[in-house]
């Protein structure tokens, strides 16, 4: 019996338990998946072992800390210094990041993207920026301060919101938590409107509600997605790690979709 969870703060909005538990059930596996709201000041490594987890998904604000406490890290995590999946075995922690490949899978229908703007500069932004760059897309990262820009190498353009001079992007991504539990936009509305009027696609990593960013994108008739498909696909890839599965991806995806009540 595997003991699994998603860890974050806040975390009650997470749909991961529905996805994973349904996949566990339909694939005939032994395990249970729950969610935990951890205090940001706790010793994450100590707490994970104390509670007896076999593996966990990690969300904000613990992705960087998850990377730091790992004994072994996959290539993606090592590049961006952030992990969203931890596998615990023999008192060792193995760290992975499935955000990038989950995001890429979820925007497959967004065609001919040449330039992308990512709002926010946290761990999720770095993962998305990296996977976009790996696929030949020019990436600009904008944030309210420059503290986190040092993690982005010179192949990315970085800018404070108020210093943006180029407002022409095919894809605009909100990687911030703005709108998750409030009515805030990721940046000043006037700046955002200058960007959205020129864009074709938008993506909001938040999936639990229609954020002000999402609503504003609809106003400008952009083709927009929220983070639900990204959640689905990063969950599929994490599930393969949790149960060491191969050649079951379609079954996992369909079971998770059913858990989210997205199947007709």
Automatic annotation (TrEMBL):
Any Pfam family hit: SDH_C
Domain of life of the source: Bacteria
Segments forming domain Shikimate dehydrogenase substrate binding N-terminal: 6-86
Positions that bind NADP(+): 205, 227
Ranges of residues in domain Quinate/shikimate 5-dehydrogenase/glutamyl-tRNA reductase: 112-178
Pathway given in the UniProt record: Metabolic intermediate biosynthesis; chorismate biosynthesis; chorismate from D-erythrose 4-phosphate and phosphoenolpyruvate: step 4/7
NCBIfam families hit by this protein: aroE (TIGR00507), PRK00258.2-5 (NF001316)
Protein name, as recorded: Shikimate dehydrogenase (NADP(+))
Organism: Campylobacter aviculae
């Amino acid at each position: 019996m595997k003991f699994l969870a998603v860890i974050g703060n806040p975390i009650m909005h997470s749909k991961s338990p529905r996805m994973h538990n349904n996949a566990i059930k339909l694939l005939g596996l032994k395990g249970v998946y729950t969610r935990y709201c951890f205090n940001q000041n706790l010793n994450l490594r100590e707490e994970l072992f104390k509670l007896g987890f076999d593996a966990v998904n990690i969300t904000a604000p613990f992705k960087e800390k998850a990377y730091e406490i790992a004994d072994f890290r996959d290539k993606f995590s090592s590049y961006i210094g952030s992990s969203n999946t931890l596998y615990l075995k023999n008192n060792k922690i193995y760290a992975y990041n499935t955000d990038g490949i989950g995001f890429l899978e979820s925007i497959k229908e967004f065609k001919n993207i040449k330039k992308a703007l990512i709002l926010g500069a946290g761990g999720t932004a770095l993962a998305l920026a990296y996977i976009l760059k790996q696929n030949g897309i020019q990436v600009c990262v904008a944030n309210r301060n420059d503290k986190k820009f040092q993690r982005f190498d010179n192949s990315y353009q970085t800018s404070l919101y108020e210093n943006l001079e180029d407002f022409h992007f095919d894809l605009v991504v909100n990687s911030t938590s703005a709108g998750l539990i409030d009515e805030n936009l990721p940046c000043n509305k006037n700046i955002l409107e200058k960007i959205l009027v020129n864009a074709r696609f938008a993506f909001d990593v938040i999936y639990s509600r229609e954020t002000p960013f999402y609503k504003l994108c609809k106003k400008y008739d952009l083709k927009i997605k929220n983070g639900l498909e990204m959640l689905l696909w990063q969950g599929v890839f994490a599930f393969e790690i949790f149960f060491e599965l191969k050649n079951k991806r379609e079954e996992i995806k369909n079971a998770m979709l059913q858990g989210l009540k997205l199947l007709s």
